[in-house]
Specification:
Layout lengths: L1 E5 L5 E2 L11 H5 L14 E6 L5 E7 L7 E6 L7 H14 L3 E5 L10 H10 L2 H15 L4 E7 L1 H13 L3 E7 L7 H4 L6 E6 L7 H14 L3 E6 L15 H18 L1
Parallel strand pairs: 1-10, 5-6, 5-7, 7-8, 8-9, 9-10
Antiparallel strand pairs: 1-2, 3-4, 4-6
Length: about 260
């Protein structure tokens, strides 16, 4: 079942390829240096073993009581910075009895330089990202219920995380991230997907999203698409392209979806 919502009308109708933009100067220029934020959180950096024999890291906020509900938060191309940690805390405070893990898919690399961010994103190994996600899934355990959320680079990896979660997948939110493009890649997904996209996005555009809709329909996945009259990265308050009104509406959609699924 596919539902497509246009935010201006409210009407309904039926390896990470984001790296292809790493050398696109227009894409780089569209990601201005983010503003620094003053963040002091209650979470902590935690480590866990990964299937490739290494260790993974996450900024983790644990609920007061033990829970089998988890939310994986996936960062933008800047890395696991304070803005993403702040988002993780906002979600943890809003969701209640859920363990929130903001995964570090860059293994400690963080930057506020767009060119450097592009280089890091271009050089990541999908196998390593998958190992980190699978390590986090091991933390959640075989009875864990795992939802995922991410933005830009992290939007694509939110979808991939939910695919890896299999029958533990509770729900997936992807903000303007590159979807998978092949039926065999999407087929293992069992979680419902909420897609949040920007009309002014030159890269994750209508053609990309329509292809994703067709793929979801062909593979029998539940996908809800929401469009906002905004630019790529509009939901990041540290981004000069931040659109407060659109971000608030998108974040409410995401939060309502996650509360329903977890």
């Amino acid at each position: 079942m596919i539902r497509c919502t246009n935010s201006s009308t409210g009407e309904q109708s039926g390896g990470d390829s984001m790296a292809q933009f790493a050398n696109d100067s227009n894409f780089t220029e569209a990601h201005e240096k983010p503003e620094a934020i003053d963040f002091q959180g209650k979470g902590e950096m935690t480590e866990f073993r990964t299937p490739d024999g290494s260790m993974g890291k996450a900024y983790t906020i644990k609920p007061a009581e033990t829970s089998n509900k988890f939310l994986f938060v996936i960062h933008e191309w800047w890395g696991l910075n304070d803005q993403i940690k702040q988002e993780a805390e906002r979600l943890a405070d809003s969701l209640g009895n859920v363990t929130v893990m903001a995964l570090d898919l860059y293994d400690g690399k963080v930057t506020d330089n767009p060119e450097e961010a592009g280089k890091i994103m271009n050089n990541i190994k999908p196998e390593r990202c998958e190992a980190i996600i699978n390590g986090a899934l091991a933390v959640a355990g075989k009875d864990g219920q795992v939802a995922t959320i991410g933005w830009c680079f992290g939007g694509g990896w939110s979808l991939r995380s939910s695919i890896l979660a299999g029958d533990r997948g509770a729900g997936c939110v992807m903000y303007y991230g590159m979807p998978v493009e092949k039926a065999n890649e999407l087929a293992p997904l069992q979680a419902d997907v909420l897609g949040i996209f920007a009309k002014k996005d030159e890269w994750i555009n209508e053609k990309v999203v329509n292809n994703f809709k067709a793929l979801a329909k062909a593979t029998g996945k539940d996908l809800e698409i929401n469009w906002f009259d905004a630019d790529h990265a509009f939901a990041n308050p540290s981004n000069p392209r931040y659109d407060k009104a659109a971000a608030q509406d998108a974040n409410k959609l995401a939060l309502d979806f996650l509360r329903e699924k977890l």
